[in-house]
Structures are given as structure tokens and as C-alpha cells.
């Protein structure tokens, strides 16, 4: 079993027009905050932004470059609706993409719903920050987190430059 960690900071960014206008309770963001905290990660920021590329880009760059947060998990805006632009913003932010992490989440999600193929979420690194896009619905967040959580400590250690043991 992977050990719990108390060593990494995290931020949650919810991409939602309705959420940013206060028209829908952000249950997905709240679930992420609760779960990551209970896993031992340290919350430093929680932001709700509209589905707007410049706003999302600025927010993610600030969290990585200024706040130097270890982990940023986003929810929403990954799909195919005209307003869904999270991946387009990510394209401008990340320096290294980790396609395997996004594909693993989609692969496992496909076992729950074929609609998982509609998510275009990315995972990537900017500086020493890992940024992970999850879909918007609470169900999707729960299902994707199950795939993500076990690999996170090792990924974050590697990104930080630790000599992690890959052997287990
Ligand atoms: N932050 C959230 N918390 C809880 N549920 C959400 C959240 N964001 C989206 N959802 C749910 O996931 C579904 C798909 O998300 P999507 O972003 O396409 O919805 P939307 O209503 O067009 O979003 P928005 O206008 O807020 O950007 C929504 O119908 C909603 O039920
Ligand atoms: N595991 C999982 N992944 C999922 C879903 C889900 O219910 N479970 N919903 C899908 C749906 S219906 C959509 S439209 C896309 C994109 O969601 P988003 O636009 O809210 O980011 O995520 C998909 N990924």
C-alpha cells in the first residue's frame, strides 16, 4: 500500500462558469479539498475560475511560478462543449506533458462510462508543479481520483528531484 504523505502542498482550481457566478455549489472542488487533505497533502489555495483561457492560464502560472505549489488539481472544462477550454489553457502552461497519467485515468474511467472518452484532460509539469486536469462532475472526480492517488507520492517525489526508488 502507498504511504500517506505530509510533505506536499496542493491547490484546487475549479473551472466552471456557473460556479464562478455562484450559481452552483462546487461539490467537486469540495470533495477534492477534503480527500487530498485526508491523504496528508497540505492545502494552500482553492480558486473557482470561469471557463476562460487567459484567466485559467494566469491562475495556473501563478500557482506554479509564484506560490510554487507541488500539486494543482483542476476540475471541469475538459469536455467538448464550446465553453470547455481547460486543455487549451494547459497547452500554454505546461512544459512537460505526462500523457500516460491522463490516459490511465481515461482508460479506467471507460470501464465506468463510455462518455469518459469525451474528456480531453491533460496532466503536465510546470517548474516543480504537477498539474492534473479532472472532469467536472463529482462522480468523475471520485472515479479519477481513485486512479490518481496511488501514483501521486512517487510522481511528486520524482518531480521534486528526489532519488525515488522505482522498484516496488
Ligand atoms: N464544480 C462542480 N461541482 C459539481 N458538479 C459539477 C461541477 N462542474 C460541473 N459539474 C457537473 O458536471 C456536469 C458537466 O460539467 P460541465 O462543465 O459541462 O457543466 P456546465 O453546467 O456546462 O458547467 P459550467 O457552466 O459551470 O462551466 C454538469 O452538468 C454538472 O452537473
Ligand atoms: N470517470 C469518469 N470520467 C468521466 C465521466 C464520469 O462520469 N466518470 N464523465 C464524462 C463526461 S459525461 C464528460 S462530458 C467529460 C468531460 O467533463 P467536463 O467537461 O466536465 O470536464 O468527462 C467524462 N469523464
Automatic annotation (TrEMBL):
Keywords from UniProt, A to Z, are: Molybdenum cofactor biosynthesis, Nucleotidyltransferase, Transferase
Q: From the UniProt record, list the reaction(s) this protein catalyses.
A: molybdopterin + ATP + H(+) = adenylyl-molybdopterin + diphosphate
| Domain MoaB/Mog: residue ranges | 11-155
Q: Which Pfam families match?
A: MoCF_biosynth
> Is Nucleotidyltransferase given among the entry's keywords?
yes
Involved pathway(s):
Cofactor biosynthesis; molybdopterin biosynthesis
The record's InterPro entries line, in alphabetical order, gives: MoaB, MoaB/Mog-like_dom_sf, MoaB/Mog_dom, MoCF_biosynth_CS, MPT_Adenylyltrnsfr/MoaC-Rel
Keyword Amino-acid biosynthesis listed: no
Cleaved signal peptide residues: none
Q: Which PROSITE patterns match?
A: MOCF_BIOSYNTHESIS_1 (PS01078)
Any idea what job this protein has?
Catalyzes the adenylation of molybdopterin as part of the biosynthesis of the molybdenum-cofactor.
- Family to which the UniProt record says this protein belongs: Belongs to the MoaB/Mog family.
What is the protein named?
Answer: Molybdenum cofactor biosynthesis protein B
**Native species of this protein?**
Desulfopila aestuarii DSM 18488
**Taxonomic lineage of the native organism:** Bacteria, Pseudomonadati, Thermodesulfobacteriota, Desulfobulbia, Desulfobulbales
Amino acid at each position: 500500500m502507498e504511504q500517506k504523505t505530509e510533505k506536499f502542498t496542493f491547490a484546487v482550481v475549479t473551472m466552471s462558469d456557473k460556479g464562478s457566478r455562484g450559481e452552483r455549489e462546487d461539490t467537486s472542488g469540495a470533495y477534492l479539498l477534503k480527500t487530498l487533505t485526508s491523504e496528508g497533502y497540505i492545502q494552500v489555495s482553492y480558486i473557482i475560475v470561469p471557463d476562460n483561457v487567459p484567466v485559467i492560464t494566469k491562475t495556473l502560472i501563478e500557482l506554479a511560478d509564484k506560490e510554487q505549489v507541488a500539486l494543482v488539481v483542476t476540475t471541469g472544462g475538459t469536455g467538448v462543449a464550446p465553453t470547455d477550454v481547460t486543455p487549451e489553457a494547459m497547452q500554454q502552461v505546461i512544459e512537460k506533458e505526462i500523457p500516460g497519467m491522463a490516459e490511465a485515468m481515461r482508460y479506467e474511467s471507460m470501464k465506468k462510462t463510455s462518455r469518459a472518452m469525451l474528456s480531453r484532460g491533460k496532466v503536465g509539469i510546470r517548474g516543480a508543479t504537477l498539474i492534473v486536469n479532472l472532469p467536472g462532475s463529482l462522480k468523475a472526480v471520485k472515479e479519477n481520483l481513485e486512479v490518481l492517488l496511488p501514483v501521486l507520492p512517487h510522481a511528486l517525489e520524482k518531480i521534486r528531484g528526489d532519488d525515488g526508488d522505482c522498484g516496488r
